[in-house]
Amino acid sequence: MSNSRAFIPLIAFLVLAGLFYFVLMKMNKGEYNPRDIPTEFIGRPAPSIDLPNLLVENDRVKSSDYAGKVWLLNVWGTWCPECWKEHEYLMYLSRQGVPILGMDWRDDKDDAIDFLKQKGNPFVEVGFDPNSDAAIDWGVYGAPETFLIDAQGIVREKHAGALHPQVWQEKFAKYFQAQKPTE
Amino acid sequence: MIPEIGHFALVLALVLVLIQSFFPLVGAQKGIASWVAIAKPVARLQLLFTAIAFACLTWSFLESDFSVLYVASNSNTSLPILYKVSGVWGAHEGSLLFWALTLSVWTTAVTLFGRSIPPVMMARVLSILGLLSVGFLMFMLFTSNPFERLVPPPLEGKDLNPLLQDPGLALHPPLLYMGYVGFAVPFAFAIAAMLGGRLDAAWARWSRPWTQVAWVSLTLGIALGSWWAYYELGWGGWWFWDPVENASFMPWLAGTALMHSLAVTEKRGAFKAWTVLLAIFAFSLSLLGMFLVRSGVLTSVHAFASDPARGMFILVFLVAVVGGSLALYAVRASKVRSYVRFDLVSKESALLLNNVILVVACAAVLLGTLYPLLLDALDMGKISVGPPYFNAVFIPLTAPLVVLMGIGAMARWKRDSLKNLWPKVRVSLVASVVFGVLYPVVVMQKFDWLAAIGMVLAFWVFFTTLKVTRDQARGRGLGGLSLSHWGMAFGHIGLAVFIVGITLTSVYSTEKDLRLDVGQSHEMGGYQFLFKGATHLQGPNYSGDRGEVVITREGEQIAVLHPEKRNYRSGMPMTEAGIDAGLTRDLFVALGEPLGSEGAWSVRLYHKPYVRWIWLGSLIMSLGGLLSMADKRYRVRARRTAMDKAAVGATV
Fold it and tell me: Measured between CB atoms, which of A26, A105, A130 is closest to B377?
């Protein structure tokens, strides 16, 4: 075995490690998310929502009530730890006046009500979707997921995973600049 | 209080492994006897503290202490005790603690069973293992502390991932981790041998039993996972080429190559550099798997909370361990030459070829696993590489390997000739072709080329193994054969059984998705499946439906199956398939969705011939590994050296 051949495994490994580093950096900068399956809904009219209201008996949550507004749809569940993480930031957004419609997905009703009682409720209304009736229409495949719907009822953005300030600045903030509420 | 004790024990363990990895290594290089001598006691003490930390976490689970974030995220009060315990290693932080514990258990085992190993070599090995422990413990303490508190504590915890609430799966991760971590031992021996500059047959002999025990754990772990996927996921499949499955399969392939290569290095002193490289590969692939699964760069059904910050830590660790050892290899091992000659036709050649095929197969799996990631990261589009690629590449690669197995077992060391081999394999060859072709026709009653090829290969391995065993036993009887011969025989026959399983299942399985009304029945593979409806079901932490399907054959009742569809409190739906298991066929019923208000359901039916043989084969293979590990030559040498030492002590 010649000397230089003994370096082949090392070099091959370093190339691989370089690739991993590159991917991780892209993930850290938010440029790349392997979970980001492009949604077909971006740029299209939002599917309509008609779900039982989690917090008000015999009431229904309808997306038609939000026509003419820029609003967020946040899909969550008490079973999802990422949603706990995200919760505080949703509370902050709601204090800033961002209207968020919650979709409580595949959840236990009492658990969900308790959760909002204990940690606060950032949502204008919460639709209860234990059987994925609406979630399927929206192509949701993991929680949390957040969609932005503009005043014309078109889905403009989608984010899979917990919301945080950086994502907010990059993807969502611009839609609220024009009609910015008091800060 | 208990979690703080656990946390503190981890910090102490870290301090101890820092000592364990520094002083003995430097002492061995500089010849300071006292520094070398501390290796063993420190290693054992470190096990004590890691075990304390593990016990504390287990305690927190049993007590349902939800002020610990990890417990609150993975357990709740209604969880059965078994799953409270398996919850300890059910998610990221706890499974890391399990890795660290397993590593220190192996390390201590090396100090206990490696009495024949010279102290300087032992000091180096323990230092290398210590360095690996440093990595795991720092990873845990800095990015993934399992004892992190949650203030204020919730009244009730979240559910353990329902997929993991199964006895088979409670054991699957620990066995896998024991296998992954087990490869750290031959890795440490290889590095220590390179550091010492003595790449002789001795390190191979010391590493062999450790490699075998790691390989056995990994084999059982993978088989258990596959069995679980079969009955729990309700898809009727047993292997999906999922990235996480591949992550466990790659070290297995490298480990299999390593086991065979170690045999050559120990017995013949050949392939020295190559064996070292394989020892590095086997463990590196285990670490690589950990990186792929936990950094979140790949998506898979195996959901691990992923986090790029953790990914970066593992990447740094990976570069230090793998890059460091490959650099050492490049400098040291290239100077090692094996001055052992062997002919083109010999056992050495057959084993070398076996090694090359296994490594190429492993590389093909690696490529298939990383290719989508590469394309996606370079913005060249999202693709997924699925079973078609793996089957198309893997099966043609491994078929020659199986042919070679028969010849390799038969061939003599050093020099053999085709003229000499031919009479030995002649009968096996004819018999395997005849039986292999007839089996599909006579037993399965339908000829199929793929089935015939698979069966010929399986019979070939079976007959050649019998022949070798008979030849070896000539003159001394079956009882006179060494355990390592039996190990080889069982390992190879296990593979034959496995090949029968995958061949016949893949070719002859039938499945059907259909709607069944109450009282309606369907015929498949000669069996009548009668659906008697579904009733509501309430479990400790789930509710759901339980169907009843009566299976009859020619009017005779064969089985009553109760497939279930469960909805766990966490909101996750799960399928529990109803399976009637048999040696030559499984009947499998899974509930889909309720249809309409009349009690009809969508139901999936499977008839799977010989599917059990897949896991039966893996069990036999593992038994082979255990047998050769127990071979007395490892123990006799150990005892003799201990006696020599005692004798020397007496004369001094």
Answer: A26
In DSSP terms, which residues pair with B535 in a beta bridge?
B546
Cβ of B376 within 8 Å of Cβ of A32? The answer is: yes
Other residues' Cβ atoms within 10 Å of the Cβ of residue B642: 12
| Phi, then psi, of B66 in degrees rounded to 5 | -80, 5
> Do the interacting molecules here have an ipTM over 0.85?
no
- Between chain A and chain B, the number of residue pairs with CB atoms below 8 A apart is 97
> Cis omega before residue B118 (within 30°)?
no
Q: What angle do CA A72, A75, A77 make, to 5 degrees?
A: 145
Structure-token match 């729990």, residue found:
B232
Q: Is A24 within 8 Å of B297 when comparing Cβ atoms?
A: yes
Nearest CA in chain B to A9: B326
Phi and psi at residue A142, to the nearest 5°: -165, 160
Amino acid at B202: A
Residue B7: left if φ>0, alpha if ψ -120 to 50, beta else—which one? Answer: alpha
For B297, the closest of A20, A106, A118 (CB atoms) is: A20
Q: Give me Rg for the CA atoms of chain B.
A: 27
Query: How many angstroms separate the CA atoms of B273 and B222, rounded?
Result: 29
Q: How far apart are CA B543 and CA B286, in angstroms?
A: 38
Instruction: Identify which of B319, B326, B377 has the shortest CB distance to residue A9.
Output: B326
pLDDT tens track, chain A, 183 positions: 446 788 888 999 999 999 888 888 877 776 655 555 555 567 778 888 889 999 888 888 888 888 888 999 999 887 666 777 788 889 888 888 899 999 998 788 888 888 888 888 999 999 998 877 787 777 776 678 899 998 888 888 888 777 888 788 888 888 887 554 443
CA-based nearest distance A119→chain B, Å: 11
Q: How large is the angle between the packed helices B201-232 and B272-294, nearest 10 degrees?
A: 30
User: Does the beta-carbon distance from A20 to B570 stay under 8 Å?
Assistant: no
Residue in A46, A51, A44, A39 with CA at minimum distance from that of residue A139: A39
Taking alpha carbons only, the member of B359, B455, B353, B490 closest to residue B411 is B353
B434 DSSP assignment: H
Contact A108 B327 (CB under 8 A): no
Best interface-test mutation with B: which of A3, A13, A19, A40 has the largest number of B CBs within 10 A? A13
CB < 8 Å to B74, chain A? none
- pTM for this model (two decimals): 0.80
